[in-house]
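Risk mitigation, structural track. In case the binding assays with zinc ion fail to produce interpretable data, a predicted complex structure has been prepared as a fallback.
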Amino acid sequence: MENALDRVTQKIVEADDLKLLEHVDTYGYVCHGHACGVRVFPRSYRPENLQRPHFSLPKGQAHAPDCDVKGEDDLRARGKKGSIAKELETSPGLSPASLRLIETRVITDPIATPAGAHAQGGSRSATTGDALQKPAGRRAANSIRPICRAFLEFPYDRHLPLQIDGVQTTTYQTVFKKLRSEGVEAFPQQRIFYAELAWTAAQEHDDRLIIPLDAGEWMDKRLVRPYCIVVQWAEWTQTARTRLKNELEIARQENMAAKKARADERTYLFVIGAQNPEDLSQFVVSDQRLICTVHDHLVFPKQQ
Ligand SMILES: [Zn+2]
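Fallback model:
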């Protein structure tokens, strides 16, 4: 499972985002499926783990019979072939409606009450007995990761609304902008920019990490001026730096392996960053919630 419900805040948490926390309460998560609530345990969430983080059920445990999270894999498979917009409207875990950057400590504070989680208009009741009540619909995400995942997973549902502060466009289709290989372009509007990750490893400096992408300006079949993501990480903790470096290394390896195996999947890097006016090949980002990698098959259905 890629996400679970935080028992304290009653918010859905992405497994990948656990790597951003200084402390992970391994007993703090349950399945967010309707009428389920089976305890799930975070796995591979330590920054040094060389596997993507996830949640799993203890051995011998099962989801409740009516749990809809169980059905999410079927939905994902259907979503690759056609629109499942109706189902996405009632599945909080699959297709976020907006990006809301809240402080991560809200999620970790052990004495936090669920009250904070309800101030933002969720339909969940504050009492634990009702905690498994089905949420009304698509939720907000606390990082771009679940949004980027949904973009790749549901190619026939990119007409769904998506609200991100600072981005003028309002659907999945229009919020995302692929960086191409026909020279370096200027992008006056903020978008979620993305491209396939390059095979070359990121360059590490004290104050920044430079991640090359497999897009930009080509000459004589060589990428002479790749787009790069410049992560300004001077203020980051060592944990946060290690987490990103590890994710990038996992991502680079899985991308190379997929290409060598001639698989359809590739690893894409997504970012909300400021294009450097002095060097348009650079996008600068400093918030770790605004950069991520996702491994999937990128599809553009014909009718869109
Ligand atoms: Zn469940």
